[in-house]
Amino acid sequence: MPMSNINYNNMNFPIEGIPSNAVSIVGSVADEEFALASLLEAQANLLCNAINPCITVCDFIDVIKSIIRTLKTIIQKNNILENKLRETLSFIQKEGIGCLDYNAQFELLNNLNSVLESIGAEESSLGYLIDKLGKGVTNIASYCTFDDIKQINNLVITLMKLIVEKNMILLRKLQTVIRLIKFIKCSEFDFFIKIIKEMLCAIENLINSIFKEEKGLAELIFGESVKISCALKMCLNEEELSELDSLITSFIDVICDKKRILENKLSEILTLLNTVGFSSCEIDFIMDHIKELQSIAFKDEFELSKLIKDNSKELNRFIDKECCNFRELVDFNICITCKLLSLLKCGCKKKNEFECDCNY
Q1: Which among 67, 137, 169, 257 is most buried, taking Cβ atoms within 10 Å?
Q2: Angle CA(297)–CA(265)–CA(251) in degrees, nearest 5?
Q3: What angle do helix axes 196-232 and 146-186 make, rounded to 10 degrees?
């Protein structure tokens, strides 16, 4: 059966044997995830080479397509590792921590922390990739025809959807680890004092990875604004404006999906902080990193405001058309409003709270 036809989410990998062997499996999952983080960083470095004045639109498109293919394969591997980790930790929980000797207990804590570190490493690599994608879009926008803009936009949305899918896998993995940590804390065995500094560092890296992803999103939104500005200078007809509208809305939707995952990830990290138990000074240290996230959020909002401004220009341009009738104006204004509502979804919990059936 071809790999693309396998449903990894429905596959189970029962773990048999002694708990100490399962502890080693947790460590192997962390090692593989670190390797995937390096591969993701390599994809971002590939984009770095595509950010130069000499690259053609066709070459840039080929680079994005190549990264999409690689990311699809990475996600297949991630799904397998997620199932392996979930089944292994379930086995350890079923057998109980007490069945492990002192060395195995310490190894389990180290391996759980390594998984947390690997999640942070992969998220950081994704942030790096998104950042370079945004810079690449900004660099190539002025060379694009409208057909190029449509193709690039569709590829960017495809790549971002894959990144969101990978984010979901990493989020579920984080939740799985936190469940076992809660189980250990509720038992009579509390060994976290042994690796408290290492775990604090892992949590710090997780928060910094959110910062990097938010920064990357701001760069990508800026690139989208530049691309839209270029498109609006092309004297587009009604059909092309409708296509542009659809592209913008799809882009905003995937950005909102990404932001919701980052919000959930931050919530899980705070749960982890409360579960493990740190001193007030250690908590304050982590909160300083969370405050840094607020500053980058302002940049996100600024770039989103530019998108709104571009949409306003689009509406005014349509209104100025001599042949435009009143009904067209009303319909087009409704469509602009729908896009604004899509922007507001960045702060909403329900994914499908707003719907738009406009034709423009």
Answers
A1: 137
A2: 55
A3: 160
d(CA 62, CA 56): 10
Token pair for 248:
């913008």
CB of 213 closer than 8 Å to CB of 130: yes
Q: pLDDT by residue (tens digit) across 169-223?
A: 999 999 999 998 888 877 665 566 667 788 888 888 898 898 889 889 989 988 8
Q: Which residues contact 325 (CB under 8 A, 6 or more apart)?
A: none
Q: Which residues contact 193 (CB under 8 A, 6 or more apart)?
A: none
Shortest CA distance to 209 belongs to which of 127, 141, 151?
127
Percentage of residues in the chain having pLDDT higher than 70: 69
End-to-end CA distance of the chain: 43
pLDDT-based confidence at 21, cuts 50/70/90? confident
What is the DSSP-derived secondary structure letter of residue 195?
A: G
CB-based burial label for 100 (10 Å; 0-12, 13-18, 19+): buried
Global pTM reads: 0.77
Which pLDDT score is estimated for 230?
85
